Amino acid sequence: MTFWKILWQKKSNISINQHKNSESNYRNNIIIQDFNYKNDKVPIFLSKNKKIDLYELEQLCDTVGWVRRPLKKVKTAIEHSFLTVSLFYKNNHQTKMIAFARATSDNTFNATIWDVVVHPEFQRKGLGKILIKEVITELRYSDINTITLFADPQVINFYKNLGFIPDPDGIKGMFWYPN
C-alpha cells in the first residue's frame, strides 16, 4: 500500500488541461494546449481509442529502434489489451502519434504495462510521465491493484521516479522461449 501512497503524493510539474476539442471523437482530449515543439506551440492530445493507425505506430516504434513485429499480431495485441493510451500532436493540419502504451489485465487483480514508447524528439519533456500516470489512473479506476511492467536497464530510473519498485522479494518472473 505504501507504493500507491507515494505515487499519488508526487505531483507532476506539467499542468494538464482536461477539456474537449470538437475536432473528432478519436483525438479529442487536449492535455497540453501550448506544448513547445520546434519553436512552435502545438496542442498535445490524449486518446484511449484502440482504433489506431498501425503504420503510424510502427513508424513511432522505428524512431526508438524497436524490432518490427508483424502488424497482424500487433493489431491482435491491441484488440486484446485492457487499455491503450496514445499521445498525438497537431501542427499545420498534421496529426502525428508521439507516444503509446498499452496494458493487459485479468480485469480484477493484475495488469501489466507493455509497449511504452515516446518519440525521441518528445522524450525528457514530461510526456512519458503523463502517459504512464494516465495508464495507472485508468487501471486504479478499474480497481486493479497490482501493476507490473518490464523495463530495459536504461529506463529503470524513469519508472522508479514514478513509484515503481523492483520486485522486493527477488525476481519471480520466469520466461519460456521456443528453441
UniProtKB/TrEMBL annotation:
Domain of life: Eukaryota
Single GO MF annotation: N-acetyltransferase activity
N-acetyltransferase domain location: 50-179
Keywords, sorted A to Z: Acyltransferase, Chloroplast, Plastid, Transferase
Presence of the UniProt keyword Chloroplast in the record: yes
GO cellular component: cytoplasm
This protein's record includes keyword Phosphoprotein: no
UniProt cross-references to CDD domains, sorted A to Z: NAT_SF
Matching InterPro entries: Acyl_CoA_acyltransferase, GNAT_dom, NSI-like
Protein name (Swiss-Prot/TrEMBL): GCN5-like N-acetyltransferase
Designated gene of the protein: ycf52
